[in-house]
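Quick one, tokens below:
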């Protein structure tokens, strides 16, 4: 399901990781977008600074200025000011709260699918999911590939097509089929704007992998690859004693990192069928 939030003349699109004013994208650094999305999702309450830091910068040591800087950039992007807080309200000594009137839209695929549910919000509300129609040929091929994967034969499938024809919704449908069949489904989305960290979709996938019930024993068996994967997400290995490896040339270090991530994913797949979804790969 693709969810959008409309407020103050802006649209926050979760599926596209995008803030738009009309048809034009508003440039936001990834962390600034993450702060906005988190505040929108928890709009029913004041969110403390400590909570934002723990949720959006887990395991990282950041300066005290990083969050105020994000809030300042966010207010500038949405046309808010510190004095006239019509979108992001500062509750002194407590934290921040999203206060703008909000509309939520759940879109069943892209506009071509024609399935949209709207909810006007004075309090929290969750939209209904539209029906999924069409795409029979694509879904048949995807389900065949999923069946092979569930049976132990890995498959790679690329969904291609013009913007707006429903690729994301189609991927969400096969991911839902995978979950129903007992697979572990991990997803990451590429970010088109500036400022995205290296390997951004894989960081999202690895974070989700670390939250899976199978993760703890798999990480314990990862051996020497622990230190390599910890370069990307040190918070996954908070309870592990890490021994840094020998210094390597950049190309060798990159190869080691890719191999360690592959080993982690293979180990997860050995305990339960695994489906990886990378959206907006272009």
């Amino acid at each position: 399901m693709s969810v959008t939030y409309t407020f103050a003349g802006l649209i926050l699109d979760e599926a596209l990781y995008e803030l738009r004013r009309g048809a034009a994208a508003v440039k936001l650094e990834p962390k600034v977008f993450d702060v906005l999305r988190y505040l929108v999702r928890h709009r029913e309450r004041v969110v403390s600074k400590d909570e934002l830091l723990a949720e959006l910068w887990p395991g990282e040591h950041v300066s005290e200025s990083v969050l105020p800087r994000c809030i300042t950039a966010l207010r500038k992007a949405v046309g808010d000011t510190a004095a006239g807080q019509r979108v992001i309200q500062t509750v002194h000594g407590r934290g921040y709260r999203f206060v703008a009137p909000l509309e939520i839209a759940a879109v069943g695929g892209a506009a071509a699918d024609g399935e949209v549910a709207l909810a006007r919000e004075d309090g929290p509300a969750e939209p209904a999911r539209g029906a999924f129609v069409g795409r029979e040929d694509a879904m048949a091929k995807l389900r065949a590939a999923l069946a092979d994967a569930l049976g132990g034969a890995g498959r790679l499938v690329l969904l291609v097509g013009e913007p707006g024809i429903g690729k994301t919704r189609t991927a969400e449908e096969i991911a839902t089929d995978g979950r129903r069949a007992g697979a572990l489904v991990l997803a990451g989305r590429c970010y088109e704007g500036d400022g995205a960290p290296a390997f951004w979709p894989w960081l999202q996938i690895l974070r989700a992998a670390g939250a899976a019930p199978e993760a703890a024993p798999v990480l314990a068996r990862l051996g020497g690859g622990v230190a390599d994967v910890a370069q990307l997400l040190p918070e996954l290995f908070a309870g592990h004693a890490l021994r840094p490896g020998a210094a390597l040339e950049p190309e060798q270090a990159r190869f080691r990192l890719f191999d360690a991530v592959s080993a982690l994913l293979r180990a997860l797949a050995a305990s339960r069928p695994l489906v990886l979804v990378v959206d907006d790969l272009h």
